[in-house]
Amino acid sequence: MTVDLFLDGVPARQRSAALYEQLHTAIAHGRFAAGDRLPTTRSLADELGIARSTIATVYARLVAEGHALGRVGDGTFVGPTTATVRAASPVPAPFARAVRQTGRSVADLESPPRGWLADLRSGRPDPALFPLTDWRQSVTSTLHLPPPGYDHPAGLPELRRAIAAWIKRSRGVDATADHVLVTAGAQGAFDLCAHTIVGPDDAVAVEDPGYRLARASFAARGARIVAVPVDRDGIVVDHIPAHARVIVVTPSHQAPTGALLSPDRRRQLLQRAGELDAIVIEDDYDTEYRYVDRPLEPLHRLDTSGRTVYVGSFSKTISPSLRLGFLVAPPRVVDALADARRVVDAQPPHLTQAALAAFITNGAFERHLRRTRRAYRERRDLLVARLAGMADDGSISAFAPCQAGLHTTVSLPDDIDAEDLARRLHVAGVAIATTADDQLDNRPSDLVIGFGLADGNRLTVALDLISATLSTLR
Amino acid sequence: MTVDLFLDGVPARQRSAALYEQLHTAIAHGRFAAGDRLPTTRSLADELGIARSTIATVYARLVAEGHALGRVGDGTFVGPTTATVRAASPVPAPFARAVRQTGRSVADLESPPRGWLADLRSGRPDPALFPLTDWRQSVTSTLHLPPPGYDHPAGLPELRRAIAAWIKRSRGVDATADHVLVTAGAQGAFDLCAHTIVGPDDAVAVEDPGYRLARASFAARGARIVAVPVDRDGIVVDHIPAHARVIVVTPSHQAPTGALLSPDRRRQLLQRAGELDAIVIEDDYDTEYRYVDRPLEPLHRLDTSGRTVYVGSFSKTISPSLRLGFLVAPPRVVDALADARRVVDAQPPHLTQAALAAFITNGAFERHLRRTRRAYRERRDLLVARLAGMADDGSISAFAPCQAGLHTTVSLPDDIDAEDLARRLHVAGVAIATTADDQLDNRPSDLVIGFGLADGNRLTVALDLISATLSTLR
After folding, report:
1. How do residues B5-31 score in pLDDT, each as one tens digit?
2. Of A133, B140, B158, B208, which one has the fewest beta carbons inside 10 Å?
3. Considering only CB atoms, which chain A residues are within 8 Å of B26?
């Protein structure tokens, strides 16, 4: 073959995406002829020193997207489309590094095409449950005055007040408006903390598996990422290394495993953080949906030393389209973060902030939560009942009890590869992810089933298909 | 005195803010007693090795804010208020670095109190000219459907299309939707470029004086900032150093001097960038307001090599509260930037994007620009006529001709200190800035007169006051 592929220095978890990107680029730029045979997975695995299954996944994706053709028992061939729009748009030399840095393709991130059977991707609330009427009213109530112009980078005072009152009531987080900084979702909070709190080469301890994009925020600002294992009780505190300056955790609903950080572990974690004089970032991204027992007290409330930054989001409760979340920290820290924010995006947009402040204070938010809690609980109960049956008959080996949030994880029997299953489901019309992207090691990954975008009917269809696919694989 | 002040390592331009912050903190935390005399400006100037005028400015501000009392001929004393909310909110140890990093106080950035005579701060459009009815209609037209959830990180497709069509028509920038990335104002574009295009320790050439917050974005991501002087024809291309990887310029209306980059310099700049294989970032922040001659072709249009990133904003035309701007780059670069954005703020908010797309495509934006151009032209003509008179009678030494935008700069006679004048005006009720914050050297600064927030009446009152103050200072 005439195309060089480079995977040296690419982290294990990004190799699949990098290989896809390089092959896709080579095909799009016409560096293969239509009908050229791609190397066998075995020869490429030997050449690049990566798993055959990784290469098979990439080939399957190229086939699924029409860039390549698979012939059973005969190999994989470059498809007839060799020139694309992108080929007409070369990358000017000075930008080469920027484009090379990108391990993933933006195409990965786009919404699935219409007509899917079911979308089981996690972390997404149902647009069908969006509070259309109340939201419209909250937005229009803000439109009678011109917006103020440049404003406080920590956010609109009435929204900071509304959030402070809300988290005090709902989570017992002790905060006034001065403690609250409005961010562009939880992601904006991570980026701001990474920008301000974390110095270059500071060690940031993250859960493994753990939310990929939180980790990526800190890595992008030059932090050293340290993986700490997670078990059924959440992060294993004993494994937090002594040089950790920041510890990022999801105590209410571990992302992605779904574990609840136990009361003992909470105390241990705060004690350990105190010994290390480390900052704790508590990502409470979907705590509003809780199905079993009462929620545990957040670390922020248990922490008497003021070292915990509490992060929340409206992406799971209302919509990610809002791009509104918040963090809670000591007022002087909020001031410093707000100042740093001036050079990132200056301040949050006024319109959505004003609308959200109205939506919370006029009671629509709590009404919306009551309604969506009922809807998601039904889906969760259906899912748990089906998974219990599948665990009984051995088609899955275990599943997280789904005490909270909008997803759960499923462990598969040893002879089933989660990536392979997800790929098969994808081809059959079910969008589904595994824990692979969130893992820093090479342990077998679990399946992640989200039910934010799938109502009872879709969930039933998808679970039928998962059962059927699993039985063909045994 | 019992309080140690540290200014070592603080850049010259930030010393005033840092000194203010340290004194203010010491007073707020009760480390002075009410009535304590602050050191004389002379003794503190000797001790800290900075100008007496800097210290006098800080003392004046502490007096203006009620933290200190000034007695003519007798010195400055700590005021009766020694405990504030902030004193009750100490900074937990692990956050100390974050708080220390902040040279400026957030208080600097807040809107002035009500009741000012005039606000001549630059870069702010008039909320009184906000297109309330058309905007309300554009917003409400988007509220009949739920927002889509996670979406393309480069922005809403219809907004990318609308922006591409608009800048093609208005500026001759050759772009399709694929070339456009929607950002959180121009600031969001700088931050994203800093994140993705610029490597650690890369040299970024900036104009001196030049827009402080653009420079700060690149510095925050670890770039080395290199100052390039500006004259009447804009950036002095011969001074761009050979190791510059990125060149940030404001060709249409140099920020802050107001110079227009001449056609010759445009050609020289692109040639120089080509020789260095450098990226050019063209910040076209307020090009929509042009009062004299036709606008020159943007660098992006003159550049045949694809090395120019064009940055625009809706902050000056509609409102900074919108937090919407854009950049134009080759599609593959846009993809890479969009991917990098996932870890900053995921994507722009849907509501404001959808409303702006409607506002542009339904013609309201052009209507709004016609109306505001007339209003700002009247203010500009009034300002230029008054400044011409003041130049004639010698009370100012020169002023930029204000061919475009919402501000102009005024050079003062040698014996007048712009900072001192601005402070006196501030006390008298006029908010006004100088070029000091945008300068990287210690040359005398110019006065910056913005007319976005001051209508004809306010502008007249403020100019009367400036004239009167200048004559008392001669």
Report:
1. 777 767 777 788 788 878 877 776 666
2. A133
3. none
Sequence-distant (≥ 6) Cβ neighbours of residue A307 within 8 angstroms: A273, A274, A277, A278, A279, A280, B92, B94, B95
Chain B positions touching A308 (Cβ under 8 A) are: none
Question: What is the signed CA dihedral for A109, A113, A119, A124, rounded to 10 degrees?
Answer: 40
Which pLDDT tens digit goes with each residue over A443-468? 899 999 999 999 999 999 999 999 99
Q: Tell if the CB–CB gap between B321 and A277 is shorter than 8 Å.
A: no
Out of B99, B132, B307, the one facing A146 most closely (by C-beta) is B132
Give the ipTM.
0.82
CB-based contacts of B340, cutoff 8 Å, min separation 6: A98, A101, A102, A220, B192, B195, B196
Search chain B and give the residue with CA nearest A303.
B92
Residue A331 to residue B92, Cβ atoms within 8 A? no
Q: What is the mean pLDDT of residues A279-296?
A: 92
Residue type, B205: A
**Cβ A422 vs Cβ A465: under 8 Å:** no
**For all residues of chain B together, what is the average pLDDT?**
88
Q: Which residue from A minimizes the CA distance to B147? A: A321
The more confidently predicted of residues B393 and A441 is: B393
Interface contact flag, A350 B321, Cβ < 8 Å: yes
For residue A148, give the nearest of B127, B145, B331 by CB distance.
Answer: B127
User: Smallest Cα–Cα separation from B387: which of B403, B399, B375, B404?
Assistant: B399
Contact assignment for A94 to B352 by CB distance below 8 Å? no
Question: What residues form DSSP beta bridges with A244?
Answer: A203
Partners of residue A145 in chain B, C-beta under 8 Å: 132
Whether residues A346 and B185 touch (CB distance < 8 A) is answered with yes
* Length of chain A in terms of residues written: 474
With a threshold of 0.95, does the pTM exceed it? no
Domains annotated for chain A, with CATH where assigned, are 12-78 (1.10.10.10), 113-128+367-473 (3.90.1150.10), 148-362 (3.40.640.10)
Distance, in angstroms, between A350 CA and closest chain B CA? 5
3-state secondary structure at position A235? strand
Q: Whole-angstrom Cα distance, residue A276 to residue A241?
A: 9
Tokens representing residue B177 in the block: 């939707």
